[in-house]
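Run log // design_07
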């Protein structure tokens, strides 16, 4: 069966050209469990730079519903909202989680690859883990969940 999520390999010279034009920048650090920004001991919002800033972006994009907040473009965020209530079989929901997560993260030019998905079901909640790679071949693991709300 053909792979629905092909792995596209760019020639080395194209990868170098893309990575020379992409800035990883800085980002505010956010504690998603507490629902607030991470503060330094001096009371200033903590800042992430480089790869950590990219990881903050990835986490935030997967936490944000697409098309809900006017401040974000229509390309930003995910569409997990009604996935669990869709009455699809768990294998179809897992495929949709993979598709939506991949589309959400690949919109950022710093992201090179999203793969290595694994799933764990608990009642009506699907917890997933995936491996993400940036254009500098740095790898990280992202965890998320899709809950029947």
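design_07 sequence
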């Amino acid at each position: 069966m053909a792979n629905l999520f092909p792995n596209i390999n760019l020639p080395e010279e194209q990868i170098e050209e893309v990575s020379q034009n992409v800035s990883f920048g800085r980002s505010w650090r956010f504690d998603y469990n507490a629902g607030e920004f991470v503060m330094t001991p001096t009371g200033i919002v903590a800042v992430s730079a480089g790869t950590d800033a990219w990881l903050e972006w990835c986490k935030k994009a997967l936490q944000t519903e697409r098309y809900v907040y006017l401040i974000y473009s229509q390309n930003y965020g995910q569409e997990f909202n009604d996935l669990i209530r869709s009455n699809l079989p768990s294998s179809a929901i897992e495929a949709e989680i993979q598709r939506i997560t991949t589309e959400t993260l690949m919109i950022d030019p710093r992201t090179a690859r999203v793969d290595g998905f694994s799933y764990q079901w608990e009642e009506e909640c699907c917890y997933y883990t995936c491996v993400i790679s940036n254009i500098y071949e740095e790898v990280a693991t992202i965890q998320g969940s899709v809950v029947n709300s």
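The domain at 23-147 is CATH 3.10.450.40 (Nuclear Transport Factor 2; Chain: A,).
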